Amino acid sequence: MVLLAAALAACAAGAAEVRRSFEAVPKQALVELKATVGRPFSSGLVFLDGKFIPPPYKVERYGTALRINGQQVTGQIIPWDEFLKTQTGVRVERVEAPASEAPAAAEEEAPAESSYSDDLSDDFDDLFDDNPKPKKKTSRPAARKPAAPPPPAAKVIFDGEFKPNTKTKAMVARLNKYRTDLEVMLRKGGAYFFGTRYSAIRADRAPADMFIEVIPQVMKDCSTFEAFSSAARAKGITYLSEAVLRDLFRNRLDYIKLQERAKAVKDERKWEAMLNKAGQ
Predict the structure, then answer these.
(1) Do 81 and 227 meet the contact criterion of CB atoms below 8 Å apart?
(2) 197-220 mean pLDDT
(3) Is residue 156 within 8 Å of 236, Cβ to Cβ?
(4) Alpha helix segments (H runs only) across 43-131
(5) Measured in Å, how far apart are the chain's first and last C-alpha atoms?
(6) Quick one: average pLDDT of 149-158?
(7) Which of 3, 207, 234, 253 fits as disulfide partner to 203, beta carbons 3.0 to 4.6 Å?
(8) Are 193 and 240 in contact (CB under 8 A)?
């Protein structure tokens, strides 16, 4: 009991460390674009910052972002400012950074090891990429040199009444396609690993089935991240970045829910096989 309490406390502390939020959807975007909500379904796997979200799932286009079961899982896919720029009377102003916020002298850098990119892409396939693209090589500090001033920020100003047009309707159609594609993949038994600190990763049905079959036991058995990561890689979970694995490790007590989900998936597969055999 004491060990369990300690493990629960450690997991709670770890979860607090990574508690962040996606870029909020502007209120006006919600008012003007509303939402598109799919019907609930029970297939697939969804994780948010390593926390398992159990099915049934309801995938929603929430203004300019996506939500699953009421939890936002992306930032703005198409920024609301892009919608405003299509309106008559809109102004785009450049905002210079105050002198007090000028950056300090930068340091020249030497090569260092590359790591996974946390950037989101405008393209849906990149946004939910099976293989996160590595970042460009960064470097270690060496000699200092004057820092370049930051580029001026753009501020979109629109005081009129928002009116849908051909461009805004096309952008909403793109957002709805993103929602549909995500839902279709989950309905096929795939998995999504969303994170506030890294790009989401998608796994098709086969790797998702393998994941749910092996990861609960790995979570249960491993008390250190090094052991957890090595065991996960050895079991074939090679498509997840270290950042995703760390989030899963912080939430490793979810293995109980995942064991239940693994049993449900096996039962679903048996029924599918029986129905397919009966239909032949």
Answers:
(1) no
(2) 96
(3) no
(4) 80-84, 124-127
(5) 52
(6) 72
(7) 207
(8) yes
List 164's β-bridge partners, or say none.
none
- The beta strand positions in 49-179, using DSSP E, are 51-53, 59-62, 65-68, 71-72, 91-95, 106-111, 139-145, 153-157
DSSP 212-267: HHHHHHHHHH--SHHHHHHHHHHTT--SS-HHHHHHHHHTGGGHHHHHHHHHHHHH
Tokens 């962040």 sit on residue: 20
Give the largest Cα separation in the chain, rounded. Answer: 75
Contact 53, 68 (CB under 8 A): yes
Please write the tens of the pLDDT for every residue from 44-75: 999 999 999 999 999 999 999 999 999 999 99
pTM: 0.73
84 or 9, which is more confident? 84
Euclidean distance between CA atoms 63 and 77, whole angstroms: 10
Beta strand 45-48 pairing with 191-194: parallel
